[in-house]
Design brief:
The complex is a heterotrimer of chains A (179), B (116) and C (327).
Chain A: H1 18-21, H2 24-38, E1 62-64, H3 79-83, E2 89-95, E3 108-116, H4 125-129, E4 135-137, E5 153-154, H5 156-159, H6 172-176
Chain B: H1 4-8, H2 11-36, H3 52-80, H4 86-115
Chain C: E1 2-6, E2 9-13, H1 19-26, E3 52-57, E4 70-71, E5 81-84, H2 89-102, H3 120-128, E6 151-153, H4 163-170, E7 177-180, E8 187-190, H5 203-207, E9 213-215, E10 228-233, E11 242-248, E12 251-256, H6 271-276, E13 284-288, H7 303-312, H8 322-326
Parallel strand pairs in C: 1-5
Antiparallel strand pairs in C: 1-2, 3-4, 3-5, 6-9, 7-8, 10-11, 10-13, 11-12
The chains are: A alpha+beta (179), B mainly alpha (116), C alpha+beta (327).
């Protein structure tokens, strides 16, 4: 069979001679490597104080977007919950009252929308499934740690972006899907 | 891959475990430095005619430097081979290191006999 | 008896059978889709044109092909007829155009619509339609009409199949439901916005191929694919009482008739069963309904695999041939 890559190597397993069986030269060689690493630049960062830059394809905490008029885009169609491989999303739909037209874009809206962040695997399939461009995974925020399990069930109070136009969450990079 | 207590214990209890382990390491280093590496002696220091108090202080510093060098060696080995496969470790200990030390004993005895 | 060939499969049917029913006798991929024809409603069919087929040989006596595609739901078979359904590129192309026409005024509000997941038009579009709309004009809209506390009418979604009109005419005894206006402006209405009072009026929900008529008691409760269909029955003085329950956990979210593989209910059920009996105690549950694994509703629906697993795990007799083991 043709090898899949050019980097494939055939592993030989021949009997070791006395020098090799002593292990000591191999150990000394290994220790030289560790010593060399002691003087190299560190690859780790001091996390809470120092943060790495997120990539554009980073999939962090979810956000439920509003449209330009401030109405929620989500219509509780359930496709995100259907697409979710971890079954992390649950929702209840409700009918919009005539007075709530500025709050919700469609006649149906999500009265309850919960993502269990302990279940979520941040695969982004909900984002792909959404027909209303309502749910996106932010590239600037990760889900924080908590002391219990309850606070990991994020409701609409956390997920929906603020109505204030200055505090909107910018996901234009993800909307373009240029990557 | 893991020592049992590393996964079974957490917080202060694990802290005590690690604490005792490091004390053990320190004591072992101190014993080695004292018995085999001259303790607080430094070579050629007596020929310099320094004041006694200074020599004592240098001795204390020398002992601690030796201890820390041993501890560094311990840690260095740990970084390099965090888990030595047990059969290989046994091979190394019984079949390589013990014969080597016996050889060492013989050669040292031979040298002492011949030099005298 | 007459012999016809549909997509290369020969079938023998009685005279005066339509091509569609002959194809349904064979079943499977041979059956043309139908949006308006409903075998239980007299006079239905001939309106949506989705069941168009090509007749490449009229009959054994007159083997000339029919000049145009024909609606299979209203064309009778003749002996020796040769019919092409999905094997004819002409039919596939025509069906694609029909879907596009049906979608001209149909809103793309599937995320909101309660029918999504069990919608004939959705399935038809998925199978035959374009993925993008070419229609740029404004779609027709209607003022909302209240037609009673149990049934929700969304005129914007209506494709004017007339199934509900025939149901109201034939199942109920007085005519309370009909189509107003003509052509592009036609709409389903009730005379003087009458409340439908008949005991069987709820069946217009089941016959509706789209989400124009939906169950108000189920409105926005749950998406259909998150509920589990179960066969159930009860003693009902008005109807057979054989229904399909759509359950989530132990809650009955919705009651519908039992639909067969062609999307038609086996028996019409009464409004009491449909709208008022929403407690588990009201019903004797028979077991999960079979759902085609091509349907989104089949997600997390394990009836087939479960039975198969159970059969493969029947305990085998281990001690039975003890004698032979000792030999």
């Amino acid at each position: 069979m043709e090898p899949l890559t050019s980097r494939a190597q055939v592993v030989e397993k021949k009997k070791m001679n006395l020098w090799e069986r002593m292990y000591l030269p191999a150990i000394v060689g290994g220790m030289a490597i560790t010593l060399k690493h002691l003087f190299k630049k560190k690859v780790t960062v001091k996390y809470p104080e120092q943060k790495r830059e997120f990539s554009k394809v980073w999939r962090g905490q979810h956000v439920l977007k509003r449209d330009d008029n401030g109405a929620e885009r989500c219509t509780a169609c359930g496709l995100c919950a259907l697409a979710c491989p971890a079954e992390a999303i649950t929702m209840d739909a409700a009918e919009r009252k005539p007075s709530e037209k500025n709050l919700y874009r469609e006649e149906k809206y999500a009265a309850r929308y919960e993502i269990d962040m302990l279940r979520c695997i941040f695969c982004g399939l909900c984002e792909d499934a959404c027909p209303k461009e309502a749910i996106f995974l932010r590239d600037d925020k990760i889900v924080m740690s908590e002391f219990g399990r309850k606070p990991f069930v994020y409701g609409k109070d956390i997920l929906v972006e603020p109505m204030d136009p200055t505090k909107r969450i910018d996901i234009s990079a993800r909307q373009k899907k240029t990557f | 891959m893991l020592g049992g207590y590393h996964t079974e214990y957490s917080s202060m209890k694990l802290g005590f475990y690690l604490f005792s382990e490091y004390i053990n390491m320190f004591v072992a280093s101190a014993v080695m430095a004292t018995l085999y590496f001259g303790g607080y002696h430094l070579p050629f220091i007596s020929g310099l005619n320094l004041p006694h108090n200074l020599i004592a202080m240098i001795g204390v510093a020398a002992l601690f430097i030796k201890i820390f060098l041993f501890m560094f060696f311990f840690m260095w080995v740990r970084w390099t081979i965090p888990r030595f496969r047990y059969d290989q470790l046994m091979n190394l200990g019984w079949k390589i290191l013990i014969p080597l030390s016996i050889l060492n004993l013989l050669i040292t005895g031979l040298v002492i006999l011949l030099v005298k | 008896m007459v012999k016809v060939t549909i997509d290369g499969i020969e079938v023998e049917v009685e005279e005066n059978t339509t091509i569609l029913n002959a194809a349904r006798r064979i079943g499977g991929d041979v059956v043309p889709p139908a949006m308006c024809y409903y075998s239980k409603l007299k006079g239905s069919g001939g309106k949506c044109r989705t069941c168009l087929v090509k007749v490449s040989q009229g009959s054994a006596k007159d083997p000339r092909p029919m000049p145009k595609l024909v609606a299979s739901c209203s064309t009778m078979v003749q002996d020796g007829m040769v019919i092409l359904n999905s094997t004819s590129p002409e039919v596939v192309d025509a069906r694609k155009s029909v879907v596009e026409f049906l979608l001209i005024n149909h809103p793309l509000d599937c995320p909101v619509c309660d029918q999504a997941g069990e919608c004939d038009l959705q399935n038809l579009t998925y199978a035959h339609g374009l993925s993008k709309s070419r229609y740029e004009e404004e779609r027709r809209t209607f003022e909302k009409i209240d037609i009673g506390e149990h049934i929700q009418l969304h005129m914007t979604r209506c494709i004017l199949c007339y199934r509900c009109v025939y149901t109201a005419d034939q199942i109920t005894d007085k005519r309370v439901h009909g189509v107003l206006n003509r052509g592009d402006a036609s709409e389903i209405g009730t005379y003087i916005k009458n409340v439908i009072e008949n005991d069987f009026s709820g069946n217009v929900i089941d016959v509706c191929p789209v989400g124009a008529l939906t169950d108000k008691t189920f409105r926005f409760k749950q998406r259909v694919w998150f509920s589990k269909p179960m066969d159930a029955h009860r003693n009902c003085s008005k109807c057979s009482g054989k229904v399909a329950l759509w359950m989530k956990g132990n809650d009955i979210l919705r009651v519908t008739g039992r639909k067969n593989s062609f999307g038609e209910v086996e028996e019409f059920i009464c409004n009491e069963c449909r709208f008022e009996k929403k407690k588990t105690e009201d019903w004797t549950i028979e077991g999960p309904r079979h759902i085609s694994n091509h349907s989104v509703i089949s997600q997390n629906h394990y009836e087939n695999t479960f039975k198969a697993k159970l059969a493969s795990r029947q305990p085998k007799e281990i001690y039975g041939n003890k004698d032979s083991a000792e030999k």
